[in-house]
Specification:
Two copies of one chain form a homodimer.
Chain A: H1 2-33, H2 38-49, E1 58-59, E2 63-64, H3 83-103, H4 106-111, H5 113-137, H6 147-157, H7 161-170, H8 177-206, H9 211-244, H10 251-269, H11 274-284, H12 289-315, H13 319-322, H14 326-350, H15 355-364, H16 369-381, H17 387-413
Antiparallel strand pairs in A: 1-2
């Protein structure tokens, strides 16, 4: 037991060392020579050093650096890294979204909340429809309302707020009208996505939908999110004043992080993603004096921790698993891009953005990231989808996730105002 | 699998939130009202919220926040927190010792290295002798060279460089002659302690000592440590220049952390503690431009992470287990204090320190901390000591660990020069 845990910790520390070095080297190369955001380099580094590539090789005297974990109780392995590494990566994502929340201009966020809701609905509806008809189109099934196509629809609706928040933060565009709309829409998307998933799991397990169950899950998630956000905004000045009373070094930072972690854990318990809780509490504290005080030290933490999340995201990519149903994969990926860009972009156009702004919003909603992977993993674990459809979902996720930074940066650099109509 | 890991991560995030809040509240109270270093408050917070006290209570709707982990393969549970939490705490200790190394004045360290070696030898020899004779004194055994007393001797030799480094850092006394002597002696102590443990395990398993095995283990550990420290000092200017070439934000910090993690993992693989590797690489980089650049952001990381280590240390305390052999426990604890304070203090007196300086060094070497717990855990896992002797070792560790900050701060505040003889 003792030697076992010592070994686990040593192995984790070695993994983190390799991840940090790989992240920074790849990030630097990507920025300097490819003129692309460093997050793209970090994702690629993860693919290269991960358990499906170099990480699986045995190093003399060290063994395998990133071995696939053993499946417990005969369950399918969904997350191909150790619990410890996955935990560190998830903590990093919580810090990422907390910082994104702190950096958001609350007034601007509230101003664009209605537009964001419309964008989110479009960004959920069209990808869902595309997801359930894609397997029909490719001859995998006749009925788009079978559990498999329904599940694929859920995977398609996901939006990875992590990727977008990181890029928007890096290029300092979080507080543009498009920036806040994307972040707010991604939050609403998460709530809607959970509702869709609840419905589909209900159908898969009982063959029907229980309206009361959907209402319960939806009410719980929405109610908690509204309570956290509104309550947080109301008591933020008091929290700020209380935390600034602490005089010991670093206390306000540690306490603020503690708050973010509590909000994240509560969000998960109420059926939302952890990152939604972290973002909401960050948003609530964004206008306070506390934010001014903790922002600089928090950014140091950010740079040391957040790259770990993106490298681990890259590690989830299993290129081999994608090739199994490559035809459906390509069709689904194209549909995923079109349905999200137009599904979010057209509503944006309808609520006041011009073509430049709507394009930015459509692209910003594009990456599926870890949210889609987690949904697909649930499907695989419950046997609703097989390894082939899982591979297809991964392909779609990877392409949309890698495409987002490549497209988003130029879309913000060229153009200009995304609101004014000509 | 998927829901399982999500649950693990949520639970960990909630634990970290509670730990951070408890650490900072307790630290603030300790500093402000008890005028004691905050590390003492953090340790106490750990005892109170840990798995042997409040943490074991079931919270409605949440369950048990700090449950004891299930023992794998019928092994004894030595570390009473989850692998994930223990991993985070260990990473924190690596950061702590890396910062302590960076803050050490290398010239001063080398100047006092000979004195420190003498102090370390005394600080290992006397506690070891006290440890093997205490059970004889109390009638537990007749032979001080039985495996149980020998093991207790090993537990007694440990020095927790973590506790001392934290306190010396907090009161800015790392670079006094006493400060560097304590840190260097603690490092040498770790090497000597590993040799002693190797010998005792050899006796326990084969009934005798293989000189070649001891030479191998000792040579490996000493050789690695010397190579890391001397090699590190020689190439530090090049490492500094290379890392400062990276332009992306936070790259130099993340890369330096990566280096520290690699050194820590390698140290563990060569039979040393991780923290020794982290300290040595920090020491090597202490005079470079890189240090100037990363010190400020690193301190933010320090304040967010290091308290977690001390709260988790407090969580290891099981007051109930200590009461089983309370008589031996009290005797052993008194011997632990006397043998370490005089065992390190008298050699210090002999190598040029005055009484004030020698007292500081003796107290600085006092805390056994996590090192003793790990050694005791090995003994328990191998069946060399029973739960009663384990409880005794814990009592000794807890008292010396809590006593150190209480005594060390006043010893540095009063007095003055620890070298000049009157």
């Amino acid at each position: 037991m003792e030697e076992n845990i010592t070994h686990i910790v040593t192995h984790l520390v070695l993994q983190l060392a390799v991840i940090l070095v790989a992240a920074k080297v790849a990030g630097e190369l990507t920025e300097r020579y490819l003129k692309q955001p460093s997050v793209l380099g970090e994702l690629c580094a993860g693919v290269i050093i991960g358990p499906f590539a170099l990480g699986a090789l045995s190093i003399p005297g060290l063994g395998v650096l990133f071995p696939l974990p053993h499946a417990a109780h005969g369950a399918a392995i969904f997350i191909p890294v150790s619990n410890e590494l996955w935990s560190v990566a998830q903590i990093a994502s919580v810090v990422l979204l907390f910082v994104a929340g702190l950096e958001t201009d609350l007034k601007q966020f509230l101003r664009f909340a209605p537009q964001a809701s419309v964008v989110a609905i479009g960004g959920v509806f069209f990808p869902f429809v595309a997801g359930i008809y894609a397997p029909v189109l490719m001859g995998f099934t006749d009925n788009p309302f079978d559990t498999m196509p329904l599940f694929l629809g859920c995977v398609m609706t996901a939006t990875s707020v992590g990727i977008t928040a990181r890029i928007l933060g890096d290029i300092q565009q979080i507080n543009t009208p498009e920036g806040v709309t994307i972040l707010a829409a991604a939050v609403v998307d998460d709530v809607l996505g959970i509702l869709a998933l609840t419905i589909v799991i209900g159908i898969a397990e009982t063959g029907g939908v229980s309206i009361s169950n959907v209402a319960l899950v939806g009410g719980k998630a929405t109610g908690f999110w509204l309570a956290l956000t509104i309550g947080g905004i109301l008591i933020a000045p008091y929290i700020s004043r209380l935390l600034l009373k602490f005089q010991s070094t670093g206390a306000s930072l540690a306490l603020a992080l503690g708050l973010a972690f509590i909000a994240a854990a509560l969000a998960e318990m109420f059926g939302l993603a952890m990152i939604i809780g972290a973002y909401s509490i960050g948003l609530a504290l964004s206008g306070t004096e506390l934010k001014e005080r903790i922002m600089e030290p928090l950014e140091s933490l950010f740079h040391g921790l957040v790259p770990i999340f993106f490298v681990v995201m890259g590690m989830l990519v299993n290129l081999e698993a994608m090739t199994a149903s490559i035809g459906l994969g390509i069709v689904l990926t194209i549909l995923a891009i079109l349905s999200k860009v137009f599904g979010s972009g057209l509503p944006a156009l309808a609520v006041g953005f011009n073509r430049i702004g709507s394009t930015r919003i459509g692209i910003g909603m594009l990456p599926r990231g870890e949210v889609a992977l987690i949904v697909a993993g649930i499907g695989l674990a419950r046997g609703v989808i097989g390894p082939d459809i899982f591979g297809v979902a991964i392909l779609m996720t990877v392409v949309t996730t890698f495409l987002a930074p490549i497209l988003l940066v130029p879309s913000f650099k060229s153009g200009g105002d995304g609101l004014t109509k000509h």
